[in-house]
Specification:
With 539 residues, the protein is α/β, with parallel strands linked by helices. It contains 22 helices and 15 strands. The C terminus is likely disordered.
Length: 539
């Protein structure tokens, strides 16, 4: 009965229709195409019935295929029909709309008031002043490094976006937009490419464990190749990537379909093979060796600022780096704190969801550690991971950042629709693909203007927020300015939730409220990333 009225009925009737129409086609030849269609359906149905790899298809031949069809388009259906304006997956419709509007110079005002529930736990806000300030010029910059090649960096810059992960016109659009707006574009670990150069914008060259763009055939660091490229006038700073928020402890991943011959030449790897970076650097294995490597890069680049990027994991490892700076007198010019909520083109699921410290907690820890060691005025701090609005910049500068980096919002500005299909090479907007037929739609001149517009309009919004709070620069922000709701009836200043460590408190041996600093400062040295155990300390 199941072949007539049940789950196999579609296959049965397709087969029956094929036989009947095939028989009739001997007399009426025009019926033959109809018979062929039923024949194909019957063949697929009987294949589904007999195969063993997919249980649903075996039990529901032909019909079961609708499950896989609907499953494949579920993200699109959810995004366009069922997602609310505030669902962050990972960026909400409201956030994306704001970026699109600012990039097109459309007023991003919201009528009828906020749609956010201000009594939700974790809701936070900036306290305003009854005496607003007036900012004549929104020049929010921070000087990084020392000497003639010190770099005056904008409060908002483009985070690591690699050539290969993003298409050639996407990279060129970002770089040209950075040039138009006077801010910086981080190359990502894919190296400084001809498309960064064509864009003309200031670049921060990121050096990862793969040493792309400055590697030997064996994959080790090549000082001559680095020195030659680092002299380029567009490269303003060097960033040594220790880890990434979206996949800390895991090397970068560029899948084979995106490793074209051009990508291979830029990175110094084999074409059309998965390009997987090692999980750790081969040039150093201790904090002291890291500082030596940073000093070496600074010398080879002619004195350009050199910093590190990391996602905070074991707290004692970053404390050991800071302790090494105190002990040796060598310095890192800046630290980019990447939160676990940051984006990437491809990452293992568990790494993206359950590894690494979120940005807010990591940023406070880094700021406190540098303050306690007396290094905060010399070591600048950048924040990156899911920052999208002017308020996000305000909040993270208040928690300890000197400037903020964004990647995905700038991708929205050049056309990204958050399809989350970055690793496949089939990006529908042409942003995250190396397929010329797909990225041909990215017009560099138009998208560069959008990048510039988004940056300018976000800084304008930042200026207005600072004026409302009675301040004239982001450097005046601190944790006392941010308020966070803990429950329906309890609020606290961020300064109460994350107490600040006094300058030189760790050097002087003063008590600090952060238990990680209190426990590990005296248990680490520059000779190892691992802490000294208690037994060895006693002996």
């Amino acid at each position: 009965m199941e072949f007539i009225f049940g789950r196999y009925a579609v296959v049965f009737y397709a087969t029956l229709a094929c036989i009947l129409t095939a028989t009739a086609s001997f007399q009426y030849i025009t019926i033959l195409p109809v018979s062929a269609v039923f024949g194909v359906l019957a063949a697929i149905g009987w294949y589904d019935y007999s195969q063993k790899s997919r249980s649903v298809l075996g039990n529901y031949p032909l019909l079961g295929r609708f499950r896989f069809i609907f499953e494949s388009i579920r993200p699109e259906l959810r995004q366009y029909f069922w997602e609310s304006d505030t669902d962050e997956l990972p960026f909400s419709r409201n956030q994306r709309s704001m970026v699109y509007q600012r990039s097109k110079n459309i007023q991003a005002a919201r009528p009828f008031g906020s749609i956010l529930d201000m009594y939700d736990e974790d809701f936070n806000w900036l306290n305003h002043s009854v005496v607003p300030s007036h900012i004549a010029e929104d020049d929010f910059h921070t000087t990084v490094g020392e000497g003639p090649l010190a770099y005056n960096i904008s409060v908002l810059n483009i985070s690591g976006t690699s050539f290969g992960a993003l298409s050639p016109p996407a990279i060129q659009s970002l770089s040209r937009g950075a040039k138009l707006g006077g801010f910086a574009h981080n190359t990502g670990e894919g190296s400084f490419s001809k498309y960064h150069e064509a864009g003309g914008g200031d670049s921060i060259w990121q050096i990862s464990t793969g040493y792309f763009g400055c590697r030997t055939i064996e994959g080790h660091f090549d000082p001559e190749a680095f020195s030659e490229k680092a002299q380029h006038k567009q490269i303003k700073m060097i960033e040594v990537k220790l880890s990434q928020g979206a996949k800390p402890g895991h090397g970068g991943m560029l899948m084979a379909p995106k490793v074209t011959q051009e990508i291979a030449e830029t990175r110094g790897v084999a074409a059309y093979q998965d390009c997987i970076s090692p999980s750790s650097h081969s040039e150093f294995s201790t904090p002291n060796e890291l500082l030596d490597f940073v000093e070496r890069l600074r010398d080879l680049s002619g004195g350009k600022p050199v910093g590190i990027k990391l996602c905070i994991g074991h707290p004692w490892e970053f404390i050991a780096i800071v302790k090494a700076m105190v002990e040796t007198g060598k310095r890192i010019d800046f630290v980019t704190v990447d939160g676990a909520e940051g984006g990437t083109g491809a990452a293992p699921v568990e790494f993206a969801q359950h590894l690494g410290s979120p940005l807010r907690d990591a940023l406070v820890f880094v700021d406190n550690c540098l303050r306690g060691a007396g290094l905060r005025d010399r070591v600048k701090v950048a924040a990156s991971a899911k920052i999208v609005s002017a308020y996000d910049i305000v909040k993270h500068c208040a928690l300890g950042a000197d400037w903020c980096n964004m990647a995905r919002p700038f991708m929205f500005a050049i056309g990204c629709i958050q399809a989350r299909d970055c690793a496949s090479g089939r990006c529908p907007s042409g942003v995250a693909t190396m397929d010329p037929k797909r990225f041909r739609v990215v017009d560099v001149d138009d998208r560069a203007k959008r990048v510039h517009n988004f940056h300018r309009n976000t800084v304008v919004a930042l200026t207005e927020m600072l004026e409302a709070a009675g301040m004239t620069h982001t450097h005046q922000l601190n944790r006392r300015h941010i308020v966070r709701r803990l429950s329906a009836s309890q609020i606290k200043l961020a300064d109460q939730i994350y107490p600040r460590v006094e300058i030189n408190a760790l050097i002087k041996g003063e008590q600090v409220e952060d238990p990680r600093l209190a426990v590990y400062w005296h248990r680490v040295t520059g000779d190892s990333f691992a802490p000294i155990d208690n037994d060895r300390m006693v002996s």
